[in-house]
Design brief:
The complex is a heterodimer of chains A (526) and B (248).
Chain A: H1 9-17, H2 27-34, E1 36-41, E2 51-53, E3 56-61, H3 63-74, E4 78-83, H4 89-94, E5 100-101, H5 109-114, E6 115-117, E7 122-131, H6 140-145, E8 153-157, H7 161-170, E9 175-179, H8 184-191, E10 196-200, H9 201-207, E11 214-226, E12 229-231, H10 235-250, H11 253-260, H12 269-276, H13 284-288, H14 310-352, H15 355-370, H16 373-383, H17 393-418, H18 422-430, H19 435-465, H20 477-488, H21 491-524
Parallel strand pairs in A: 1-4, 1-5, 8-9, 8-10
Antiparallel strand pairs in A: 2-3, 5-12, 6-12, 7-10, 7-11
Helix pairs in contact in A: 3-11, 10-12, 14-15, 14-17, 14-19, 14-20, 14-21, 15-17, 16-17, 17-19, 18-19, 19-21, 20-21
Chain B: E1 2-11, E2 14-24, E3 29-33, H1 40-47, E4 55-60, E5 63-65, H2 75-84, E6 85-88, H3 100-110, H4 116-129, H5 145-157, E7 163-167, H6 175-190, E8 194-198, H7 202-207, E9 211-216, E10 219-224, H8 226-231, H9 236-247
Parallel strand pairs in B: 3-8, 3-9, 6-7, 7-8
Antiparallel strand pairs in B: 1-2, 1-4, 4-5, 9-10
Helix pairs in contact in B: 3-4, 3-5, 4-5, 5-6
Classes of the chains: A alpha/beta (526), B alpha/beta (248).
Chain lengths: 526, 248
């Protein structure tokens, strides 16, 4: 599907921090023990890989879902899909949050250096697609010609093999435009903003019925292979998976699944060749087993031919969007009180604490304010397990947001506390109060009143920042929007609904804060 | 009851108090007068531990503050001293988020651990005395400066301190309100309340104080009963200060 040619900045930084982890656990034994195969994928990638079920968007479907379920059957375990950010899959594998990656991960040399790959389960290639009524682009060669007066515009998925290929093939003659969504480019070609797009064959085949104005141009080029990745050194699991794939290629399971999604093509013949050679690698059990060929196609085929519009989208997806908004609310409402509490303690410590406390507290604030919350979440989720601290995704999100926002809140409180005249503390002390009592009863209550507006402001900001939690596999409102928009292409309607939901959550808070301000604000002016 | 011996206070090289000694007996009213910048307020603030000092000692009852007294490690000692010695500020420093009554009962409840009813009982007597019983549920912002200062005095009195320090209590007030405060303080003096009052009101110093001190340039240049200080000033600073006052 996609290939990040250079790993993200985050990855680079953390890779430097992390010492090679040599302790090896047997993933297969773990799977057998728990009876589950946890496999990672990102439903935002869309069809036909892993995507929400049309009529029940909280469930996933896709050829990789079927594939994983069938493989798990061979391994006598239950397949369990684990949602994660696509480019973070290797980290999830490394920290053993999943046993295997099955998500359009191409076989590349770079990846096999950090993970072990099975034999291919799908042979993909790059398909050039243009608009049916646009004669200007009619072949790969026409891209190179720079035909016509203007340069042709080619849309590709950001960081994909297709992008790399387009840039080398015709980067000089065309404008290669990178998009973040799998099907965004197809829509753009349809509307005429792009002249052509280059897609992996499964996407081109699966979505062809939905984009009827598009036509495939020439045969696919640049053959490549999707493989399952497992942790480095997981030879037992690798063997078991390879045997299952060989069997499934031989008995037609794979063909049956791919036909169901309309992605079986002549290129898949190569799978049989590869499976046949299995015996040279010692997979005798799988290559020699007597098999009964499955009848095909036994299942109802899954097609993406209709595109929902307008009210139909609202009706079908508002339920799941509201459900995901619930996650957003839970994340904010659990993390923010924690942030306020920690922030207040830090501010008090910095202003009134002992001098040796101040430097570390200042460091804490500056460090957390100065680094992205995404990186902090990433650190908790993917680095702490390396040193034996396992925090579940949900609590990682709560903790990460709380820690990050505590730095901001502490600065707000510091300003609020400093705005309280020195005479207030002196008056309290002169009545025999201890410093702690004076802070608690006199200074902090006044500061709290001052900081209500900026604190509420931050709460609303946090509300929307919860969307970064998708890097640690949490699916909240924004992630749900991306997932649905990618699989349904009803982007405008979904965007509207998502925006309305955010607004419905944040606006009441503005009102409540104004009420509190009004009530307390009057009392606070001396 | 309060004995100050050779008190030295400096900010860096700038010496604010250059060795001041005096003693306050129970029931006495000491008035400190003198030109601005003479160290009067700083002196008061040292007595109840709001300012650390560099030399000498301050004895309040049987408790002793020294230059080694630290606001953190000797917090208990300082709190004990402050419970014995109340303080009334020039700027009142009422707690703006609390009502008049709450301002007065806050410390009795939190520091003396009195029950709300008991603290309120004490407070009501005092609010009556300062003439603000009717304003008990008002917030400080709804009061005039004079009324605020009267609440501040009630707030100090409710702790039943052995002595009260007044730091220019009328300087932020217009003459009418200042008059109200001064007569209230005069009443306290008559009842035998021990007080040290930094003031610019010569009337109060002359008529109410049992001892008058003239502070100038960090020294207690002249002290004694008001009749002596005002009637027969010896020190040139006292003379020029009093004649300056007389001209105004």
């Amino acid at each position: 599907m996609r290939q990040r040619l250079c790993s993200s900045l985050v990855g680079c930084i953390l890779a430097g921090l992390i010492l090679p982890c040599t302790a090896s656990a047997d993933a297969l034994a773990d799977m057998r023990k728990t009876g589950r195969m946890l496999w990672g994928g990102d439903q935002e990638g869309g069809g036909p890989y892993v995507f929400p079920v049309e009529n029940n968007p909280s469930q996933v479907t896709g050829f990789e879902v079927d594939l994983a379920n069938r493989i798990a059957e061979y391994l006598k375990v239950k397949a369990e899909f684990t949602q994660g950010q696509w480019d973070k899959m290797p980290d999830m594998l490394r920290t053993r949050k999943i046993h295997a990656i099955i998500n359009g991960y191409e076989f590349t040399r770079e990846r096999t250096e950090i993970m072990d790959a099975t034999i291919p389960y799908y042979v993909y290639a790059l398909q050039l697609m243009g608009r049916g009524d646009n004669p200007r682009i009619d072949s790969w060669a026409s891209l190179r010609k720079g035909a016509g007066s203007a340069r042709a515009k080619i849309g590709v998925l950001n960081g994909s093999v297709a992008e790399a290929y387009a840039r080398t093939y015709c980067g000089q003659r065309c404008d290669v435009v990178a998009y973040d969504g799998n099907t965004d480019t197809m829509r753009e070609v349809e509307t005429g903003k792009l002249d052509a797009t280059i897609e992996d064959t499964p996407i081109a085949s699966f979505y062809a019925p939905r984009f009827r104005a598009l036509r495939r141009i020439e045969n696919p080029v640049q053959r490549g292979y999707y493989v399952i990745y497992v942790g480095k050194g997981e030879t037992a699991l690798l063997r078991a998976l390879n045997e299952a794939i060989v069997l499934m290629v031989r008995n037609g399971d794979i063909e049956r699944i791919y036909r169901k999604y309309g992605i079986w093509d002549e290129q898949q013949a190569e799978l049989a060749d590869i499976a046949g050679k299995g015996r040279f690698y010692g997979y005798f059990r799988a290559t020699d087993a007597r098999i009964e060929r499955n009848r095909m196609p036994t299942e109802e085929s899954v097609k993406a031919d209709t595109r929902k519009h307008g009210w139909q989208v609202v009706r079908d997806y508002s339920g799941i969007l509201i459900q995901s908004a619930g996650m957003t609310v839970v994340l904010s409402c659990l993390s923010f009180p924690l942030a306020i509490l920690v922030g207040l303690m830090i501010a008090v410590g910095r202003l009134y604490g002992r001098s040796w406390l101040r430097l570390p507290l200042t460091g804490y604030v500056e460090f957390l304010r100065g680094t992205p919350v995404m990186l902090q979440l990433y650190f908790i989720f993917f680095f702490l397990p390396e040193i034996g601290v396992k925090v579940p995704a949900f609590w990682t999100a709560i903790l990460g947001l709380a820690i990050n926002y505590s730095a901001y809140e502490s600065e707000i409180y510091r300003a609020g506390l400093q705005a309280i005249p020195k005479g207030q503390m002196e008056a309290a002390l002169s009545l025999g109060m201890s410093r702690v009592l004076a802070l608690r009863r006199i200074v902090v209550p006044q500061a709290v009143r001052i900081v209500i507006p900026p604190v509420v402001n931050d709460f609303i900001a946090l509300f929307k920042d919860t969307s970064v939690c998708s890097v640690v596999t949490i699916v909240e409102l924004t992630k749900r929007f991306s997932v649905l928009s990618m699989s349904t292409q009803a982007t405008v309607e979904l965007m509207g609904m998502t925006a309305v939901l955010y607004l419905m959550m944040s606006y009441p808070m503005s009102i409540v804060s104004r009420r509190i301000e009004k009530r307390l604000g009057l009392e606070s002016q001396a | 009851m309060i004995t100050i011996a050779n008190l030295v206070k400096s900010y860096g090289r700038n010496e604010i108090l250059k060795g001041i000694s005096f003693e306050v007996q129970k029931g006495q009213v000491h008035s400190i007068i003198g030109p601005s910048g003479g160290g009067k307020s700083t002196f008061l603030r040292c007595i109840n531990g709001l300012e650390p000092f560099q030399g000498g000692e301050i004895r309040v009852g049987n408790r002793v503050l020294t230059p080694a007294t630290s606001p953190r490690s000797d917090a208990r000692l300082l709190e004990a001293v402050r419970r014995q010695v109340g303080f009334v500020f020039q700027q009142f420093n009422l707690f703006p988020h609390l009502t008049v009554l709450e301002n007065v009962i806050e410390a009795p409840m939190q520091v003396l651990k009195l029950k709300r009813g008991e603290a309120t009982g004490r407070a009501e007597v005092l609010l009556e005395r300062v003439g603000l019983e009717a304003k008990r549920h008002a917030y400080p912002r709804d009061l005039s400066g004079g009324q605020q200062q009267r609440v501040a005095i009630a707030r100090a009195l409710v702790m039943e301190p052995d002595a009260i320090l007044f730091d220019e209590p009328t300087s932020a007030l217009d003459p009418v309100m200042a008059g109200e405060i001064l007569s209230l303080m005069e009443g306290l003096a008559r009842d035998g309340q021990t007080m040290i009052v930094v003031t610019h009101s010569m009337g109060f110093a002359r008529n109410v104080a049992s001892q008058v001190h003239v502070f100038a340039d960090g020294c207690d240049v002249e002290s004694g009963p008001p009749s002596k200080v005002f009637g027969d000033p010896r020190h040139p600073t006292t003379k020029s200060f009093l004649s300056q006052i007389a001209k105004d």
